[in-house]
């Protein structure tokens, strides 16, 4: 159910929400927090769809503030979504213009659930210091997404400069599978220190930057950030050790290969994570992310002067070859198909 309320007020929206709750039933029971979504008209539908999908695992009240033109009249065009149109949540959307665009907290406060935490998500561009933003000051968690900014790598460095406990960014969440696979690989013999890491990815990939920063700070070693063309995402990681490297390579955004000494090569599916999946992960814990904080504080400085063209890194043996990974993936795929045929 979607109820549009053009040119309305916060009071009218609040009363109508109460009427709907009484008419539809106890739809507010079990709400675990309030998710405040801050977005623009261009990003509105994407942000609302992602929020509705992510909160299916974490039923909440979604309060979305869509910032329109500051030059327009002081106006709120409201909308209430309940039932299937709001996922497992109830959603209040306020499209604000004029001076109201500078006072998001004033329109949000009346809709916050009592005695429940507040999580703020900036679905696109955001202030440099989100913890100093009026919404950020009332939120326990502040989630940003550098991927949806004009310069993601620059944005993640801005996050590092202004980090405060409770901050997080979805580009960090997108590296979760890579971090898990690499940590598991280092738990297998031979147990040797890593002397250098090389992370190859698009020059505008903040996820590649964060993965390189995390590895450098955790392993206390040299870091090389090999840069590929814009839009190619995260391509590969090489961890150099005395007995040979650990290579995790995903040339095409889906199928990856993992090679390391004393272990058979593996073919893995490492798909790029959907935005709703990443947001749901962030909503599953409301405390400080110590690993993210340490990566920003200790790892990002390691990327200074660490950049190198990916082609140069491959030619020098610093980064693995994506073409070799493709050939290995095809061979492993054929071997697996033959084994299945023999077992049939």
Characterization of this structure:
- A hairpin with a 5-residue loop joins strand 11 and strand 12 (246-249).
- The model has no long low-confidence stretch (mean pLDDT 93).
- The chain is α/β, with parallel strands linked by helices.
- The protein has twelve helices and 15 strands.
Which helices and strands, and how do they pair?
Elements: E1 2-8, H1 10-24, E2 34-39, H2 44-54, E3 61-67, E4 75-81, E5 90-97, H3 104-108, E6 118-122, H4 134-138, E7 141-144, H5 152-161, E8 167-169, H6 170-173, H7 176-186, E9 196-202, H8 206-219, E10 222-228, E11 234-240, E12 246-249, E13 255-260, E14 263-269, H9 275-283, H10 290-299, E15 307-309, H11 310-315, H12 322-343
Parallel strand pairs: 2-3, 2-6, 3-5, 6-7, 7-8, 9-10, 10-15
Antiparallel strand pairs: 1-4, 4-5, 9-11, 11-12, 12-13, 13-14
Q: Estimate percent helicity.
A: 25-40%
Distance linking N and C termini = 50 Å
Report Rg: 23 Å
Q: State mean pLDDT (0 to 100 scale).
A: 93
Query: What's the total helix number?
Result: 12
Shape field:
elongated
Please summarize what this structure is.
The protein is α/β, with parallel strands linked by helices and 344 residues long. The chain is built from 12 helices and 15 strands.
Which properties best describe this structure?
344 residues; 8-stranded mixed sheet; 7-stranded mixed sheet; 12 helices
């Amino acid at each position: 159910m979607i109820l549009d309320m053009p040119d309305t007020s916060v009071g009218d929206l609040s009363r109508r929400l109460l009427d709907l709750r009484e008419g539809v039933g106890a739809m507010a029971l079990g709400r675990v927090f309030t998710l405040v979504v801050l977005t623009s008209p261009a990003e509105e539908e994407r942000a609302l769809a992602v929020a509705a999908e992510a909160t299916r695992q974490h039923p909440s009240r979604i309060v979305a503030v869509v910032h329109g033109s500051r030059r327009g009249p002081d106006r709120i065009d409201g909308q209430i979504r309940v039932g299937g149109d709001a996922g497992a949540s109830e959603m209040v959307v306020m499209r604000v213009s004029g001076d109201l665009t500078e006072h998001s907290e004033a329109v949000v406060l009346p809709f916050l659930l009592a005695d429940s935490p507040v999580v703020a998500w900036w679905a696109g561009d955001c202030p440099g210091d989100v913890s100093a933003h009026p919404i950020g000051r009332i939120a326990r968690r502040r989630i940003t997404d550098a991927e949806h900014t004009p310069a993601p790598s620059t944005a993640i460095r801005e996050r590092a400069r202004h980090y405060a406990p409770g901050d997080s960014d979805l580009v960090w969440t997108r590296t979760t599978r890579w971090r898990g696979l690499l940590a598991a690989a280092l738990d297998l013999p031979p147990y040797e220190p890593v002397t250098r890491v090389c992370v190859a990815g698009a020059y505008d990939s903040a996820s590649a930057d964060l993965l390189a920063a995390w590895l450098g700070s955790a392993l206390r070693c040299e870091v090389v950030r090999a840069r590929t063309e814009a839009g190619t995402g995260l391509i590969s990681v090489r961890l150099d050790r005395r007995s040979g490297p650990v290579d995790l390579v995903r040339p095409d955004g889906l199928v990856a290969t993992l090679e390391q000494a004393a272990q058979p090569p593996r073919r893995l599916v490492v798909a790029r994570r959907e935005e709703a999946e990443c947001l749901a992960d962030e909503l599953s814990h409301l405390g400080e992310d110590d690993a993210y904080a340490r990566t920003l504080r200790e790892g990002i400085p390691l990327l200074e002067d660490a950049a190198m063209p990916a082609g140069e890194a491959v030619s020098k043996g610093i980064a693995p070859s994506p073409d070799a990974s493709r050939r290995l993936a095809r061979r492993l795929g054929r071997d697996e198909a033959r084994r299945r045929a023999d077992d049939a």
